[in-house]
Protein: MD-2-related lipid-recognition domain-containing protein
Organism: Drosophila suzukii
Amino acid sequence: MSNKECLIFQLIAILFLVAEITSKFEFTNVMCTSLDKEFGDFEHCYLKSVNRSYKYVSVKYNLLKSPVTKIKVNLAMFKRFNGYRPFMYNVTVDACRFLKNRKSSPVINFWFNVIENYTNFNHLCPFNHDISLEKLPVETVNFQVTDVLPFPEGDYLIETNWIAYDIKRAELKFYGTIS
């Protein structure tokens, strides 16, 4: 094998190794805040690490005044640069309208694809039951933010504000890192 062929082989090997490097998402924290405890409150809100490879998030919000027929959701994404700074998205949608036509908001639909199999917030309005997100595994989020739409490495905050009847009722913050 000549030096030229050896060099070409080494370059192909290096390119193959670089192509195999992938990012990985990890949850670091979840925080839930009820802003109107007469309207509803969180029964639980936690991040559980079962072992080194299996982590999940569970949240349950008890609605105390139902049925709810008018809900808006604000989703904002932040990246840490000397504190958390706005990054890419800050979108508010009418949740009832979005659930009728998921194509109406591609950004919200991107994130809804992450949670839809783990939540009971996946039907048309009204909502006359507690809202839950149960055992959302880190692998599902990892697939969405590294394979479907790759995000750059760093620390992130995804903040959702839940607004019912034009009053902010609850706030959820999901912290994570992509390395």
Notes: Residues 15-20 have pLDDT under 50 and may be disordered. The helical segments are 3-20, 95-100, 106-115, 138-148. The radius of gyration is 20 Å. Strands lie at 25-34, 40-51, 54-63, 71-80, 84-94, 131-137, 154-164, 167-178.
